[in-house]
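Input chain follows. Return structure tokens only.
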Amino acid sequence: MIVPEIETARLKLRAFTPADLDALFLVFGDSEVMRYISGGKPRSLEETNKGMLRTVEGWRKRGFGLWAVVEKESGRLIGYCGLIPLEETSEIEVAYALAKEHWGKGYAAEAALAALRFGFETLRRERIVAVVNPENVSSRRVLEKLGMTYVKMAHHYDADLMYYEMTRASFDLSAQN
């Protein structure tokens, strides 16, 4: 499976390459970035590499996954974003994380919007979800800015998380505005 490249106004979403490992480790190895992800534990370089290899394999097996998010202006990898299976369900969730120096610039919403568009328009999914730690106010704002709707509290990834959803119909409506 060839991972499609997507360009937004300021970002390029592309397949991961082995050369991305060090930059990706700056995201996964940062305790502040990982505070609300994967039980709040930073990952080692080896764990980051295994995760990147799983991402590549996920694209091959499912036809969707996480992209490397690259800032066009600098050409630097600044994080990841994409669609992944929601743990122990048949649902797809939008997921993202950016290096701390790139927070507050609107990049997460820009990348997640591109991932949602891919999910609804290319994969033809009827519904995409997201889960977020209730304390992660910034990520909740991103989801709400995208037009995702809070539905309930749910238990995933060994945590009680806020569960959001968006339907293709609501995405189509928001895309027209």
